Each structure stands twice: as C-alpha cells, then as structure tokens.
Amino acid sequence: MIAFAGFTKPKAWLLIKVAAAAVLYIGAVQFLAWFIANHPDSRWSRLAAIVPMAAVAVVIVIAMSSLRGMDEREARMHLEALAFAFLASQLVLSTYAFMAYTGFVRLELSMFMPMMVLLWVAGLARSLWKYR
Q1: Residue 8 main-chain phi, psi, to 5 deg
Q2: Is pLDDT larger for residue 44 or for residue 26?
Q3: Helix residue ranges per DSSP H, the chain
Q4: Are 78 and 118 in contact (CB under 8 A)?
C-alpha cells in the first residue's frame, strides 16, 4: 500500500471522504437555513428542517456498522478519535456559549455537528499517526 505522511492509501482516502462530507453537510445546512428563512410558509420548509436529522441518522448507522467490522486496533483508534472529538467539542461549545451570552458572537448551533466531525477527523489523524 502507498503511504502518505504515515497514512496508508485507504485510510487517507477515508479521512478525505469524511472531511469532504463534513464540508458538504455545512453547505447543505446553510442552504436549508436560507431556504427556511426565505420561505417560512412553504410546505417544503418543514421537510427542509428534517433533512439534516435524516443525514445524521444515516451517518450513525454507517459508523456503527463500520465500527463492528473493524479489528481491535482500528476500533481502538476510532474510539480514541471519538473521545477526542466529544471532549474537544464540549470545550468549544462551552466557550462558544459563554461568548454568545456576552453578545460577542451569535449562537449558531447548526455548525456543531460538522465541527465535531472535523474534530473526529483530527483525532483519527492523530491516532493513525500514533499507531503507524
């Protein structure tokens, strides 16, 4: 297998695919928020509000089935990455919430799921580097 910065080709592609999916999710959420704001009385607004939830449910099912098919080392790497993403997102969320309470920023909750995915990718990259 071809190695790039310590990552084998399939694992590097996994990181690229996950990062690309997170960016697409951010774009889709922004578009759906725009649609709901500009068409509040449309019957499609309710459906548009549910679409991100369905996408997250699909990601959960795929992630859990993928985790079950991994060997112990890979599962440990993903567990470490998820633990890092969970804890880091809690730190970012609490800091962001305090900044929102002071009026420094506007609270945008739609950005936290993609942020957690990107933190998971960062944790996975760290685990891949650690166990190379």
Answers
A1: -75, 160
A2: 44
A3: 9-38, 44-68, 72-101, 112-130
A4: no
Query: What φ, ψ does residue 3 adopt, rounded to 5°?
Result: -105, 135
pLDDT of residue 86: 92
Task: Evaluate if residue 88 carries a pLDDT over 90.
Answer: yes
3-state DSSP assignment of residue 4: strand
Which tokens sit at 67? Answer: 């985790």
CB 115 within 8 A of CB 92: yes
Instruction: Kindly list the domain boundaries of the chain, sorted by start residue.
Output: 3-130
| CA–CA gap between residue 72 and residue 80 (Å, rounded) | 12
pLDDT band per the 50, 70, 90 thresholds, residue 89: very high
Asked if residues 32 and 52 have their Cβ atoms less than 8 Å apart, the reply is yes
Amino acid letter, residue 9: K
**Cα distance between residue 13 and residue 20, in whole Å:** 10
Question: For 59-83, what is the mean pLDDT?
Answer: 83
- Is residue 107 within 8 Å of residue 100, measured between CB atoms? yes
